[in-house]
Amino acid sequence: MGWAMGYGYVTASRVWHGALAAVIIAALTTQIVLLVLGGADANSGRVDPQSSVASRLVRAFSFFTVDSNVLVAVACVGLVLGPGREGRMWRVLRLTSLLAILITGLVFVTVLASKVHLSGAALWCTIAFHYVAPPATFLGWLVFGPRGQTDWRTLAWSFAWPLAWIGYTLVHGAVTDWYPYPFIDIGAIGYPVALRNIAVVLAIGAVLALALRWIDRHLPARRVVTAEAGA
What we know:
Layout: H1 2-36, H2 53-60, H3 64-81, H4 88-112, H5 120-144, H6 152-157, H7 160-176, H8 186-218, H9 227-230
Helix pairs in contact: 1-3, 1-5, 3-4, 3-5, 4-5, 4-8
């Protein structure tokens, strides 16, 4: 009976994460096609046919939204291949993707959504990026885990990629005078306000990270039982 329940749990985890990965990959593919054809960017709503295709793609993958969705897709594929996987690098990837996509959803809904006006395929992409991926990732983590992987060391390392993204964004913006989001557009609002906004987002991320650790410690442990383990 224990093996049967474990097998059902593994199957449900693979279906959930496989479906989420498929949605994100479809949205990313659609966004790339739109940009290649000179269509709208699903993050900003901008249409910039004068820029080169390479420039449009670089800008698209400079959005925290797109990068966080890529991380979630990679983590979901990992969970399809091994729902109970372990390892330090895996723990960091899993928590980083979860934390980043929650920040993506929260910042978009509270700050950016009213400024972005889309239709057609671009609208579908932004729905997938901002309204499907964040809650689906969180619910998948709540229900399927793996649990017990949010230790302090993993928590600290989960901020490595967001901090690297901030550094890249500031350097890229200084060189090109292009910033992905208005609340960090130094050319428009200046360094003091932009850095203050970045600090606020990092503080929100820290609160979310602590909340995830608390939840992880207080939810029932999940033990994946596979056919091999039960044999």
